[in-house]
Amino acid sequence: REALMATNETLKNRKRNKKLYGFHTFGDPGCPIDHLSGPFRDNIREFLRECGEIEDYNVEGMPTWCTHLVNESNGVVVPLYTVEENVKHSSRPFCDHCRCAGWSHHFVSKRRYHLIIPSDGEWDDQTEGSVYDFHSHLLHGLIHCNGYGHLLCINGLEGGSEFLCGREIMDLWDRLCTTLRTRKITVEDSSVKRSMDLRLLYGVAYGHSWFGRWGYKFYHGSFGVTEHNYEAAIRVLSSLNIGNVLEDLGRESRDKLVKEIVQVYREMSDTQLTTIRDLIRFMLTVKSRAPVQRKVVTKPPPPAKAIKPRKSLKKNNNPTKYKKFKSFVSEMDSRWPKRRLEYAAEVIVEALKERQGGMSRQEVRDAARLHIGDTGLLDFVIKSINNYIVGNYVVLRTLNPSTRVLEFTINEVNSPTIVDSDEDEAIVESPPITDPVGLDVYQDAKCLYHEVLEEYPESELVELATRVVLDSKHLVKEWIFKDDEEDVLLRFLCQLLMTPDECEMKKGNRPLPQGELVVVPPYATVGDLKIACEEALKDTYCIMKGLTVDEIEGVDVMNDEEVLFGSFESGANVWVRGSGMDLESKLTYEGGSDSWTVDCSCGAKDDDGERMVSCDICEVWQHTRCNCIDENEVVPTLFLCSRCCSSIMPALGDYKMDMEYY
């Protein structure tokens, strides 16, 4: 921390005579600029002229400005860098983020603006060429000069910052987007806290993701998930009745800790907590703090009691009986032979013995994959092995108090004679758990997250709903184009009508690109509007650098000298015709010049950013997950989709072969 403060002092001295702005007010109406009434492409230039200080270096040849923001609460000076990327000279002229957002049909913009707050330790360093790829920035937003953009990363206290929390950074970003008049901003919500996906946790609690408080909404899902699917999944999860949950968990002896958590927070709440939404929402409002005082309803109230420490899940810490895994698999009806299940369990235990410490679920899976190729088998055994004895060890899954991550561990059974006997159960001493319920709200929430949302017993509906929410991570916020009634300026949304040759260039039935905002004085003429539309399109898109606007649709009877006022209503769409588009340009669409087709069995018809594989016959792209190719598996050298397999191979009859695994 001292090193960071020294760095900040250096930054203050180096910029002593420069402009400083308040971090928490920057971007408010009138602060620092109160006349940004034009489109984003003009507003960002005005913003940099007024508030940015050009640096004496550049990033990959791109000019860089710095705006200095003072955190009013602690006096820390935070640098906000703006890098103007000229697409024509960029090594990456096409935007992958647009492609994943469904904006492949957008024309390639001439300029992109990267707004970056580096991580704490890099505030006094020059931004480098690889700055675009860093995921450690406190803030990184990319906005095309047409006003469409992407929030690429937000990192607050959880991401390593000592001075700014995620909410403060997000507030700043939202104010900047509003002030600069952006049009649409997307974000891929992969935010995690204590290994919990916040889009699931907040979705259950509030009906929207963490970004929803700033107006970001469902845009499109992965794997064919629709907004209707998402809303239905949220209803299923949030309406789970707590009483029913405890009853279902009780059938598997997993309800004791959950029951204690429910009891503690019900006693703390002034209102009745009936559903999982009620419970998790209340927990998130409490937040982490010192041991919470339980409410006492007797009168007069005695002194409040601190919450008792979390006890062991076993009564009175007596030795606990654990069942043998081989007995468990012998009683169940599985598509895998008993010996294969036992072998997979033995491989997992050997991996845990080699580690001599806790392993996360993914670490266990990766280690076992070195010996077992059937990922479905592994996932089933990993999910089932908790609290069972394998060989001379009992496998447990508990929360690591340091990392707050659920980890698998093994305890050696002290009585080999019991383990080697024909009995189905063995007795094992278990150490007590001493963390108090209510001391760390997120730890308690994580228990509910795991037991209810991730591992709800025998409920395909809950499992499906959870998967749908996790597959809904593409969000968007739109700033609706509307005319300001108090502003005398005239605003129009200019849309270019394409000629037959230009339409032929528009491969794959792409939708028409979005229109551009133009602003003209109140007594502008038809000719002035033509010039404004032409300049706006030429200034924004690579393909239109030689464009000439010849006419405006619907004003054939008006000449160029006639005044618009009274004939055109401000805020209307304006369609123009012209010539001079560069049809040979490689910088046409943000999706690139390649023509490819997505048609997956899940219903996806466009690239959603998930891992895909193309069929070697029809060249149609499909998700690897939908074709049972695990994320950790290498894509096959030769891949045929199910449709092509059916067309070139005769239908196979039912063919079954029972094989014992040795």
UniProtKB/TrEMBL annotation:
Keyword Zinc-finger applies: yes
**Annotated ranges, domain Zinc finger PHD-type:** 599-645
The protein's UniProt keywords, in alphabetical order, are:
Metal-binding, Transcription, Transcription regulation, Zinc, Zinc-finger
**GO terms of molecular function:** zinc ion binding
The protein's matches in InterPro entries, at most eight in alphabetical order, are given as:
MS1-like_ubiquitin, WHD_PTC1, Zinc_finger_PHD-type_CS, Znf_FYVE_PHD, Znf_MS1-like, Znf_PHD, Znf_PHD-finger, Znf_RING/FYVE/PHD
- For region Disordered, the annotated ranges are 296-316
| Pfam families referenced in this protein's UniProt entry, alphabetically | PHD (PF00628), Ubiquitin_At1g33420 (PF25565), WHD_plant_repro (PF25874)
Q: Does the keyword Metal-binding apply?
A: yes
Q: What is this protein called?
A: Zinc finger PHD-type domain-containing protein
**Top-down, what is the taxonomic lineage of the species of origin?**
Eukaryota, Viridiplantae, Streptophyta, Embryophyta, Tracheophyta
